[in-house]
Design a protein that fits this description.
The chain has helices at about 5-15, 20-40, 45-70, 75-85, 95-110, 120-130, 135-145. The chain is mainly alpha-helical and about 150 residues long. The longest helix is centred in the middle third of the chain and has 25 residues, at about 45-70.
């Protein structure tokens, strides 16, 4: 079963159970997937769907920060609920140790010695962690490692 088929099944189940927040979030996600398909002109594979989900997760995290700054606790709760639903479709996140070992592997593979070569290291890492780690966290850890 593809991820899109799973989303459709989950939406039907949520509709039957009258889980309005889950239905709304899955509809929003399916709409974003459809927009992306129209944009590129072909049906998305699971890895592309994961990219869409990851970008929506990033948007929701940004919205939560903004709402917290604005003191809008009602909207923060709504965004957090949607965020947890979206995150349930992402693969399990990598641990700190797994990220560190991947960074070590990447630095050795591209033979990076300074922060100037950070782009090469990030290019090596990002396709391998697709949807399983936050790019900002990886960026910060690579920067720290290369500054030593």
């Amino acid at each position: 079963m593809t991820l899109q088929e799973q989303l459709l099944q989950d939406m039907k189940t949520a509709m039957k159970a009258k889980e309005q927040a889950r239905v709304a979030t899955i509809r929003f996600l399916r709409s974003a997937i459809k927009n992306r398909e129209i944009e590129i002109g072909k049906q998305l594979q699971d890895e592309n769907v994961l990219q869409v989900i990851a970008s929506l997760v990033k948007q929701h995290k940004g919205s939560i920060e903004q709402y917290q700054k604005g003191g809008r606790d009602d909207l923060v709760a709504k965004e957090q609920a949607s965020l947890s639903i979206l995150e349930s479709y992402l693969p399990q996140q990598l641990s700190e140790e797994e990220i560190q070992s991947l960074i070590t592997e990447a630095i050795e593979a591209v033979q990076a010695t300074s922060v100037k070569e950070m782009g090469k290291v990030m290019q090596y890492i990002m396709p391998r962690v697709q949807g399983r780690a936050d790019g900002r966290v990886i960026n910060q850890l690579v920067k720290e490692r290369l500054n030593r």
